[in-house]
Amino acid sequence: MKDSLALIGLDWTGSRLSAWAYDGEGDILSSVVMHEPERIAAAEYISRIRFHVSEWLGAWPEVPVIVSGDVGVLSQSTTTLSIPAPLAALPRHLVERDGIWIVPWLRQLSPPDISCGSETILAGLGEDHAAVCIVGRHTRHYDLEHGRILSLSTEITSELRDLLLTAGALALKDGPAQTFDPGVFREWVERALDTDDAPPVFAVEAATFTGQLDPACKAAAIAGLLIGADVAAHYDPGDEVLLVADGPLREAYGLAFDALGADVDEISASEALRDGLFELADLAGLLGED
User: Fold this and answer.
1) Which ranges of the chain does DSSP label H, i.e. alpha helix?
2) 232 is in which domain, residue-wise?
3) Which of 3, 29, 63, 205 is the residue whose CA sits 20 to 30 A from 79?
């Protein structure tokens, strides 16, 4: 691998550091996921990255290293791109810290928002004109026109779902094991899409109490309401949307967009992230001359 190694790409999210070794064509030679026992302070990111990568490879690599994700907070004190902005300008704003190139967060002043790593996924899509829905713990909605990022809107949909299910009046507590019923999920999505008469989230608890909802489907109903509200707030029937997601969230948002009547193309978020890291490094000139 050493002879063909051209780039190390990293993404730090929460306590997880994902790493990929690329050759000069962008193909993956090796990958690994490393973990910190707990979240660390921003000031420790660089030293911990150097530790983990050296442990993985046996020594610090002699090729460029680029990182995105939570580490982007280190770009806060530098001049960063403000939305609206051309996506092609992002490679020129990489921030170098101790031999590591950091992908800076994009910022939006009105209304205030920050990209928190999703900018790298956006760079990996190869799109310059699209309504983009990037789904993860937070969902980010981008408008792209002619390669220019016009707007960003962040919803904490999945995080809010998890909070509701683990604390407060709607918490699952000692109830039955949950099952994802697509029919139940879609029913509650459709209720949320009726924005003139959408029920509050507590309606799910009331529906279980009155026997209208199987308690085992409570999580699916709550997810349906929240995701439906998220989709309804940003899209209309017939819209063309690029859904960037993986796993169960990809399925859930796909069902919600189908209920809305949107025209959706789906792309893997993890693949777009890997492509984005290589693309940004290449456009920034980190890989040298072709």
Assistant:
1) 45-57, 118-123, 157-166, 182-193, 202-209, 218-234, 247-260, 269-283
2) 157-269
3) 63
Residue 79 is predicted with a pLDDT of 63
CATH number at residue 244: 3.30.420.310
pLDDT by residue (tens digit) across 241-273? 999 999 999 999 999 999 999 999 999 999 999
**pTM for the model:** 0.94
Segments of the chain scoring below 70 in pLDDT: 1, 77, 79, 289-290
In order, the DSSP letters of 46-88 are HHHHHHHHHHHHSS--SS-EEEEEGGGGGGTTS---EESEEGG
List the one residue out of 241, 263, 284, 289 whose CA is nearest residue 95. 284
Q: Do 87 and 166 share a structural domain?
A: no
CB atoms within 10 A of CB 237: 11
- Token pair in block for residue 232: 């309804």
Distance in angstroms (rounded) separating the CA atoms of residues 27 and 230: 35
Residue 50 lies in a domain: yes
Domain identity same for 49 and 122: yes
Q: Assess whether 194 and 251 both reside in one domain.
A: yes
CB crowding 168-188: b at 16 or more within 10 Å, else e: eebeeeeeeebeebeebbbbb
Q: Residues 275, 216: one domain?
A: no
